[in-house]
Amino acid sequence: MIRTFCTNKIRKTTELSGSLWKFSPCSGEFAGKDYPVTVPCCWESLPDFSAYRGVGVFSKEFQAGGAIRLVFKGVSHTAKVCVDGEEVGSHYNAFTPFSIVMKGLKEGCHKLEVYADNTFSEASALHVPNDYMSYGGISRGVVLEELKEAYIEYVHAVPVKEGEGWKTQVELKVVSVSDQDKTYGLAVQIEGQKAVTQELVLKAGTEAIVKKEIWAEGVEVWEKENPKLYQITAALSAASGEIADDLIDRFGYREVKVQGKDIFLNGKKIRIKGFCRHEDHPMFCCALPFAAIEQDLQIAMDLGANAIRTSHYPNDELFLDLCDEQGIWVWEENHARGLSLEQMENPNFERQAEDCIREMITAHINHPSIIIWGILNECASETEYGYECYKKQYELIQKMDTSRPKSSASCKFKTDICFGLPDIVSYNLYPEWYHDTPADEYVKDIYDWVQTDSEGSGKPFLITEIGAGAIYGYRTPSMCKWSEEYQAKALESQITAVLNQDGCSGIFIWQFCDVRISFEWFSNRPRTMNNKGIVDEYRRRKLSYDVVKKLYHSYSDYQ
Ligand code: ADA
Fold this sequence. Notes:
Layout: E1 12-15, E2 19-25, E3 35-39, E4 41-42, E5 55-72, E6 75-76, E7 78-83, E8 86-92, E9 98-117, E10 137-138, E11 142-147, E12 150-162, E13 165-176, E14 182-190, E15 193-202, E16 207-216, E17 222-223, E18 226-227, E19 230-237, E20 243-251, E21 256-259, E22 262-265, E23 268-269, E24 272-276, H1 290-302, E25 307-309, H2 317-326, E26 329-333, H3 341-344, H4 349-364, E27 370-374, H5 384-400, E28 406-410, E29 424-428, H6 439-453, E30 461-465, H7 484-499, E31 504-509, E32 515-516, E33 529-530, H8 544-554
Parallel strand pairs: 24-25, 24-31, 25-26, 26-27, 27-28, 28-29, 29-30, 30-31
Antiparallel strand pairs: 1-11, 2-3, 2-5, 4-10, 5-9, 5-11, 6-10, 7-8, 7-9, 12-13, 13-16, 14-15, 14-19, 17-18, 19-20, 21-22, 22-23, 32-33
This protein binds alpha-D-galactopyranuronic acid.
Alpha-D-galactopyranuronic acid binds next to loops.
């Protein structure tokens, strides 16, 4: 499954995932042996490969001819794609999509081979041994698209509130796969209403960006209580009048605004009650099936959450579709967790982190659920070099999308020098876990410092992580650390401290469920897991579940 709705009625698309492929590891004891797997698949979910780090090849045959496009929603973490034995493309980063266009393919059966690589090296600046697992495999959907002379790569629709009305800023990218210059008719409709028609002259093999502003009358806004989605359809017709290509997407009219120390959604001051969530599951690794993603959202909503932070990378679009449909607010962030100055100085870091932002915003800009873009979780924001990287990345986001505030989760206590850059100041704090300062005292201390002694003064303040570890099933009245009792008590005091802190826009609890960590990571964690979940890896409730549920339900979504 790729999306929760139909994205093309004209362009012929065939999902290649959702079926059996062959997997074969390229090194180690089982090198060259074939295994049947259903894609999406991380090899760590197979019996022999739970700790395999290396290259593995996934293969499948497909029928096609002429111009085709292969779309990969996520290959972890470096992909090399071959068709009939020849390399046709490559991509770095597990968490962003990419596509490969091929022209003049002979009609018939072809062999697709995807080499996935999850090794750590200088070539991979963002996937490093870390407090989550870097899995290997085709972790998200794969689609085969059959193209005619040209195709619409994306249609973006960004709502802008003007006075009492709305306009939609529409941007399309159209790409020619023809050997001839051609003239096309381009038509855009919003909810079936004609919005734009124009002629487009495309020289052979080139691309064009078309931008339009469309006034919208009598719109229903997208909000938590009524997450109204609008459909935008773009179609390209050839000179003969025959429709050559189409693309359907969805968006919502909603305005996210930062004013002084508050965050407003459609004019209402919000209170975020959220969870940080990794894409992780003991049976599927990071390749969660649709039903498992929705089940996570159901649990989060039962707990009274109104928001999810996609820590620490862009998520599968199925997750975003489900959040759009259910009115869940999302903080989506680029991929970088806890990189030290030295790791940020990797010669590939800036390019890979900026590519990730570019690919994330290009793919996800239409999702109304995303209300904040995040970057660079807990990176070197206390250093001059770090500052330059943060600045460039914020500027890149600003160039691509001005409709959402930006932030980064910091752990540089009273030493962060980057707070002049974001729209929202965000901190990850662990009082009563990594140190014993009472949570209310610590939250207030950090808040006061931000508001009086930092460049973040006067900006909204968010707690993007807070929590404590507990091993599922470890119960003891001694209240010692790692017990479910201790976690429940710590969370009660942490959540109360944050939500009672004047001027605080909300909280994301670390974290939704227990997750596997890289076995190479320097820090010891019991079970080689991060155990701060409110549910364990199988989504079984810990004692803290009821505590969080009660507290989250006792604070409203708006302040
Ligand atoms: C950090 C980090 C998380 C996780 C957490 C923890 O704040 O952003 O990824 O590692 O700490 O559990 O300590």
